[in-house]
Amino acid sequence: MAWTYLFFAGLFEIGWAIGLKYTDGFTRLTPTLLTVASMVVSLGLLGLALKTLPVGTAYAIWTGIGTVGTAVLGIYLLGEPATVIRLVCIGLIVSGIIGLKLVA
């Protein structure tokens, strides 16, 4: 169950990272409330996952999911560049996430 918590914690991290862009410096109420709620849920789920998973592994995977998801959504939603080197680096992060999962 801890891995499931960690996976969803990572998804909510993506939500709040992308949400920050839409808050417009915390001047827009609805995006701000959704972003803060996503932060709370993400950290709560991470806390549940840390009950049984090693902190270094869980934190690295949590941030990795957030990083990859945010980068991909930045490309898709916000028109950020999808250069070859950027995509290769995203792939390296995914490889690291998979590697950490396999050895944990």
From TrEMBL:
<protein>
    <recommendedName>
        <fullName>Guanidinium exporter</fullName>
    </recommendedName>
</protein>
<dbReference type="GO" id="GO:1990961">
    <property type="term" value="P:xenobiotic detoxification by transmembrane export across the plasma membrane"/>
</dbReference>
<keyword id="KW-0812">Transmembrane</keyword>
<keyword id="KW-0813">Transport</keyword>
<feature type="transmembrane region" description="Helical">
    <location>
        <begin position="84"/>
        <end position="103"/>
    </location>
</feature>
<comment type="similarity">
    <text>Belongs to the drug/metabolite transporter (DMT) superfamily. Small multidrug resistance (SMR) (TC 2.A.7.1) family. Gdx/SugE subfamily.</text>
</comment>
<dbReference type="GO" id="GO:0022857">
    <property type="term" value="F:transmembrane transporter activity"/>
</dbReference>
<dbReference type="Pfam" id="PF00893">
    <property type="entry name" value="Multi_Drug_Res"/>
</dbReference>
<dbReference type="InterPro" id="IPR037185">
    <property type="entry name" value="EmrE-like"/>
</dbReference>
<feature type="transmembrane region" description="Helical">
    <location>
        <begin position="57"/>
        <end position="78"/>
    </location>
</feature>
<dbReference type="GO" id="GO:0005886">
    <property type="term" value="C:plasma membrane"/>
</dbReference>
<dbReference type="InterPro" id="IPR000390">
    <property type="entry name" value="Small_drug/metabolite_transptr"/>
</dbReference>
<keyword id="KW-1133">Transmembrane helix</keyword>
<keyword id="KW-1003">Cell membrane</keyword>
<feature type="transmembrane region" description="Helical">
    <location>
        <begin position="33"/>
        <end position="50"/>
    </location>
</feature>
<dbReference type="InterPro" id="IPR045324">
    <property type="entry name" value="Small_multidrug_res"/>
</dbReference>
<keyword id="KW-0472">Membrane</keyword>
